[in-house]
């Protein structure tokens, strides 16, 4: 029996419910004995009394992607999909991820951290800046800061989600993503949006966001992205599946943005698009993740 864990109480709850529904239907289509569990953040007791062998985690954001649910399952010796608790916690934290990647000379834009209630550190890289909470996904709480005067407002928004905000140099360019499945980097996808950047609305609400696969890069540039993505994924200790996001500047130089250990599994989602380009169906993807 498989428990499909979905919902949660993060800012990405609605996306997780959609992802969970899609995964549940895929499992059902293939005759897998499973049930849906909508976690609200305080009802895990009702999960533990149910008899199941493994959890398929499709909880996005806090609680599901930060190691909490993984830790709860490990304490009960219940198997689950995806990366382990410690890895999940590190990958969810943008500051920790950047530190690990920086130590291994992976390509990153310069950044500083700003904690609520403390003096804003000196910023020695040029505007514009991206300001984002360090523990949110789906571009929640992100602002583009074009003037010094706009920084406080951006920090206040980020601090609504977390007490630490990441201020990094904004790289003007094109966004790309590399999905990873069982040790293989899948075809690269370019993301084109009319929103200015790939924000929450572009990801889940807009119908004019374009996903290009083939991505339009030269074979060499696409291969480079895949190699960096695999290295970034492996260095974090991530397992089974995930997604690594990039921005390429106007000279096609890549900069890592972040890693996702429980990416979206909706109709707008990128991992299903990448496996489709490789000739794999959504149902097959779900089984690959489940059986790893």
Protein architecture, described:
By secondary structure, the protein is of the alpha+beta class. It has three domains: 2-81, Rossmann fold; 91-106 and 172-291, D-amino Acid Aminotransferase, Chain A, domain 1; 111-169, Dna Ligase, domain 1 (2-Layer Sandwich). Helix content is 33%, strand content 24%. It has helices spanning 13-29, 45-48, 68-75, 85-92, 94-103, 151-159, 200-204, 219-235, 270-277, 282-291; strands spanning 2-7, 34-39, 54-57, 79-80, 111-115, 129-133, 143-145, 164-169, 173-181, 184-185, 189-192, 210-212, 241-249, 254-260. Strands 9, 10, 11, 12, 13 and 14 form a six-stranded antiparallel sheet that branches. It has a four-stranded parallel sheet with strand order 2-1-3-4, sandwiched between helices. It has a four-stranded antiparallel sheet with strand order 5-8-6-7, with helices on one face. The protein is globular and about 55 Å long. The two termini are 16 Å apart.
Number of structural domains: 3
Number of helices: 10
Instruction: Spell out the helices and strands N to C.
Output: EHEHEHEHHEEEHEEEEHEHEEHH
Share of helical residues: 25-40%
Structural class: alpha+beta
Function: Cell wall formation.
Binding site for Mg(2+) 1: 245, 258
Pfam families: Dala_Dala_lig_C
EC number: 6.3.2.4
């Amino acid at each position: 029996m498989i428990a499909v864990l979905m919902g949660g109480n993060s800012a990405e709850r609605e996306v997780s419910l959609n992802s969970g529904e899609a995964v549940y239907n895929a499992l059902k289509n293939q005759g897998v004995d499973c049930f849906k569990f909508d976690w609200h953040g305080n009802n895990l007791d009702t999960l533990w009394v149910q008899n199941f062998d493994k959890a398929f985690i499709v909880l996005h954001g806090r609680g599901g992607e930060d190691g909490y649910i993984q830790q709860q399952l490990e304490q009960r010796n219940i198997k689950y999909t995806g990366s382990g608790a410690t890895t999940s916690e590190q990958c969810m934290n943008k500051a920790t991820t950047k530190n690990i990647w920086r130590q291994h000379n992976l390509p990153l834009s310069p950044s500083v951290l700003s904690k609520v209630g403390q003096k804003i550190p000196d910023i020695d890289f040029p505007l514009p800046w991206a300001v984002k909470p360090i523990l949110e996904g789906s571009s929640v709480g992100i602002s583009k800061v074009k003037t010094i005067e706009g920084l406080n407002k951006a920090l206040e928004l980020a601090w609504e989600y977390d007490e630490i905000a990441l201020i990094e140099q904004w790289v003007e360019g094109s966004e790309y993503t590399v999905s990873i499945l069982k040790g293989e980097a899948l075809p690269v996808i370019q993301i084109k949006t009319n929103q200015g950047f790939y924000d929450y609305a572009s990801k889940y609400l807009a119908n004019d966001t374009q996903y290009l696969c083939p991505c339009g890069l030269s074979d060499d540039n696409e291969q480079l992205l895949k190699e960096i993505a695999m290295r970034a994924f492996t260095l974090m200790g991530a397992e089974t599946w995930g997604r690594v996001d990039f921005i390429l500047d106007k000279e096609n130089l890549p900069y890592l943005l972040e890693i996702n250990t429980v990416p979206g599994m909706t109709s707008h989602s990128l991992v299903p698009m990448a496996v489709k380009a490789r000739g794999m169906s959504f149902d097959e993807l779900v089984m690959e993740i489940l059986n790893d």
